[in-house]
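User: Teach me something about this protein's shape.
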Amino acid sequence: MQLEFTHQQSAHCENGVASNLLKNKGIQISEPMVFGLGSGLFFVYLPFIKVNHAPAISYRPLPGLIFNRVAKRLGIKIKRIKFYDKAKAQQVLEQNIENNIPSGLQVGVYHLTYFPDEYKFHFNAHNLVVYGKEGSDFLVSDPVMEQVTRLTESDLERVRFAKGAFAPKGQIYYPIYIPEHIEWQKAIKKAIKKTCNDMLAPVPIIGVRGMRMVAKSILKWPKKVGVRKANHYLAQMVRMQEEIGTGGGGFRFIYAAFLQEASQILNNPELKELSIEMTRIGDLWRDFAVEAARVYKKRSNQEDVYKVLSDLLLDLADLEEQFFRKLKKAV
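Assistant: First, the predicted structure itself:
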C-alpha cells in the first residue's frame, strides 16, 4: 500500500521530515521556517561526554525538540511513541500505513542500506518518513536523499532499534491535530527570542560562550592529549559541523533563509538585512571548517595552526554575539 505523500529533499533530516509531514496535512511550511520556528540554531560543548572518542559538540538542540517546538508554537499536536517491543513497533507502523498516516521515525544511520559508505557511522538521531509498503519492503522518504527509497522489514527494524547514545527505541511520531487558524507572527517572534536567548546564554558551555570555550580548548588539545588525538577532535568537530545534517555553516544558511521569510511575514526589513549578515557568518564557518580540515589532513603550511583555528573561532563568537543582540532588538 502506498499513501499519497510528496517527497521533498532538504538539508537537514528533522526539518525535512517536519516540513513534509505538515505539508501532507495541508500546512505549506518550508524547511527554513521549520528550522527557525523550532529554534534549531544552537551550540553546545560537552567536554565530559565523548562521541566517537571526541568531546561532544552539537550545533542543534536535542533530537525531536525542533519539531516539538514547531508544533507547540503553531498549536499542532504531535503523537510520539517509543517501544521496548519490536513486534509492537512494527504493528503500530503497519496500522498507520493502513490508516493513511505517513509516519516519522527516528533511526540509526550506520545500517541504512541506501546511505553511501562514507556517511555511515554510529549516529542515532536521524529522521525519515515511512509512507507505504510493497510486499515486505517499506517505502521511505528520507529528506536528505534526492529520491524516495525503501527498506526491508528486517533492515528497518535494525535501524529503529539501533543501540548507543540517543538510541531511537523504535520511536514513531506523526501529527494528530492541526488548528484551523495559525498565528504565524506570534510564533515567529517567540522562536527568534528563544534562539537569541540560547545563543547569548550566561552558561560557559552554551551559545557564543560555548564557542569561546571550544576555541580555548583547541589551543590546549595538542599538549593535553597529543597532536594525533587533537587532530581527531578537530575532525569530529568538522564532521558534526559539515556532514551531520549540515551543522554549523549550513545551519546558518538555513537560518538566514528563515529570517528572509520572517521579514516578509512580519513586515520587518531589518530581518532581511540580518539575513544577509547571517549568510556571511555562515561563509566564515565554512572557512573555519576548511582550515581545520587542512590541519587534520596534514595539509596546512601555516605556523601555529591551532592558534589560527582558535582565533578564527573566537572571531566567529564575537560576530555571533553582536548578531544575536541586534536580532533580539529587531523583534
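Now, about its shape. The chain has a mean pLDDT of 92. The CA atoms of residues 134 and 219 lie 54 Å apart. If you'd like, I can walk through any region in more detail.
User: That's plenty for now, thanks!
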